Amino acid sequence: MFKLDQKVIFVDSPGFGFIRQIVKNDEFMVEDEHGFIRMFRAGQIAPIRISREKLDAVDKVPQEKANPSKPKVLEKHNALPEVIDLHIHEIVDRHEHWSNTEIVNYQMEYLKAQLKRLMEKRVKTVHIIHGVGEGVLRAEVRQYLRKFKNCEINDMSYTRKGFGATEFIIRYKGNV
User: Which helix (H) or strand (E) holds 52?
Assistant: First the structure.
């Protein structure tokens, strides 16, 4: 399943790291991107096969997205799934004085903007990380995704992202 020096992403928090020691079959010592060693269980990490730069590009809404201009020439779609991380601390710097409703509304607007961008690139599979929590954001995400016809919505495998993520498979013919 996991191997020494394998690159992994943290399921319920931002960042990535490398497995430095296998303590038990389901416990790992992981060196994070800042050089700190932290203990994780198998359900708290997931293997990562795409570059951190690509994840960072999906995790943050670029300034030009706030003021959209002419669409740029799109490159051919990469077969790897794209990732949208909806953890609020990943998409805004400060949110301490926001209500829970304001946070969920902002996360949903961010999701819509990111999905629009990925659909323009004709991406076929998107992994949406919403976290476990009390399920409010997950329910909102699922309700929004159901508006797209002929698309598939799945829980991510427990060993990959826990139940804090949703896989969205996009079929472009007949979409809203």
Answer: helix 52-59
